[in-house]
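Query structure, 283 tokens:
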């Protein structure tokens, strides 16, 4: 009769599903790290050694000290501050609770600023690191300026520590940047440069990096003015090769990030909403 045969099929499916549940682990995402410019630690500004939130180590902030005796007629301004939307007219969606991390670098030379920060533990497969980034574009604040190419953005690094500004170039596995002369966000990784064709958003962007296996990653850039997500999947990180005399193999383990403003000029660079998401196995 057909009735018993109809009963046996769902029983078989239920048994199979029950067996799957008993042998398979399901991933659950949780927030492993976060930090914001409106947290209490930054009420007196943003300095080297500041630590706040969770999932990250302390900040290392570097800006050059200019010898005015060598350039008496020059003007050089570079540094870090907590930006407030009530004060900075150009601060858009990057601000949370009205505040963001601000970096400025302008003057008559090539002014540079870099903020380094290590993760409490390196990023693993499945981990997601995200932040907000805002920069309105390059413009001279003074009659004269350097003719070097300026850039502003964020770098993810295979190096954990940094003791000087020049170390920005060490261990860079992935860079998302605005480069002078180009109107779209650029990616630098295993490829020398990739044009995202995502135009600069004056409201800012949210950048999300998801770690994949074998030195690959997925990148998402969401323009905050219209909340449109742009996906760049299965890209390859730039490997850090072993130095001469070392036996270590090439590495793409991400241990830190850097926020940089290399002669951004009239516009400040703003950052915020730092977050780490991870997965843990649950039944």
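Result returned for the query:
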């Amino acid at each position: 009769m057909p009735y018993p045969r109809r009963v046996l099929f769902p029983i078989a499916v239920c048994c199979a599903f029950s067996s799957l549940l008993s042998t398979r682990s399901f991933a659950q995402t949780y927030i492993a790290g976060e930090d914001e410019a409106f947290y209490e630690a930054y009420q007196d500004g943003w300095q080297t050694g500041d630590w706040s939130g969770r999932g990250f180590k302390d900040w290392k902030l570097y800006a050059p000290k200019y010898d005015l005796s060598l350039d008496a007629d020059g003007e050089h301004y570079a540094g870090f501050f907590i930006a407030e939307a009530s004060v900075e007219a150009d601060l858009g969606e990057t601000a949370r609770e009205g505040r963001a991390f601000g970096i400025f670098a302008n003057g008559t030379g090539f002014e540079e600023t870099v903020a380094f920060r290590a993760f409490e533990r390196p990023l693993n497969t499945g981990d997601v690191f995200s932040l907000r980034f805002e920069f309105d574009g390059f413009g001279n604040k003074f009659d004269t300026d350097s003719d070097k190419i300026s850039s502003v953005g964020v770098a993810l690094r295979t190096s954990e520590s940094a003791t000087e500004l020049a170390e920005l170039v060490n261990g860079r596995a992935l860079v998302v940047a605005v480069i002078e002369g180009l109107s779209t966000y650029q990616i630098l990784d295993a490829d020398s440069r990739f044009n995202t064709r995502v135009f600069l958003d004056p409201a800012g962007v949210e950048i999300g990096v998801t770690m994949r296996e074998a030195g690959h990653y997925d990148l998402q850039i969401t323009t905050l003015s219209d909340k449109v997500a742009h996906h760049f999947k299965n890209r390859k990180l730039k490997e850090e090769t072993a130095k001469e005399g070392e036996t270590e193999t090439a590495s793409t383990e991400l241990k830190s990030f850097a926020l940089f403003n290399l002669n951004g000029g009239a516009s400040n660079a703003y950052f915020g909403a730092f977050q780490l998401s991870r997965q843990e196995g649950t039944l």
